[in-house]
Amino acid sequence: MNTTISAKKMQIPQNFKEYAEERIDSRLGKFFGEDAEAKIVLSEMKNQIVLELTVKYNSIIFRSERNAEDKFVALDDAIDKIIRQIRKNKTKVEKKLKDSAFKEAFAYPVPETVDYEVIKHKKFKMRPMDIDEAILQMNLLGHSFFMFSNAETGTINVVYKRDDGNYAVLEPDND
Questions:
Q1: DSSP string, 55-71
Q2: For residue 11, what are the CA distances in angstroms to 7, 69, 125?
Q3: How far apart are the first and last CA of the chain?
């Protein structure tokens, strides 16, 4: 698995790089093939380490963000969360992940996954707007996300409120 580690406004010790690569290969390598990409981003916020772990494989993206006082603990927690995501969605993702991983990782009984039922379809007209206007519209509606046509790019975007209170924008990458 290809692992990339970066940091925002802090230094990454060599022993953490080695530890992270070993832990990701040993714990997540059994689920993903060699061409999987793992990306770790470290930052520090209020005396806590914020670790974001993103794993991309076969057009599936797993993401985990963990806060801890120690970067090693944050990494282990993030890996555990991704493993829980894989187990929770076992039947849906096993077709796209390595088949052999599920034979050994799920030797014990796994609860059946819940099928999802779409209970509502909604259509609405989208007019072009900028990101600030989309955030304002989302807040006025009392929603946690809002889909809009980006006036600058002409693409469909989604703005959403993150757990940390900030906002983020999802936009397509058609490369």
A1: EEETTEEEEEEEEESSH
A2: 7, 15, 47
A3: 23
Question: Is the per-residue pLDDT at 91 higher than 80?
Answer: no
For the chain, what is the mean pLDDT? 84
Going across the sheet that includes 2-8, the strands are: 2-8, 37-45, 48-57, 60-68
Distance between CA atoms of 175 and 168, rounded to whole angstroms? 21
Per-residue pLDDT of 7-62, as tens digits, reads 998 889 999 999 999 999 999 888 877 888 999 999 998 889 999 999 888 767 88
**Which residues have a Cβ under 8 Å from the Cβ of 171 and sit 6 or more positions away?**
150, 153, 155, 157
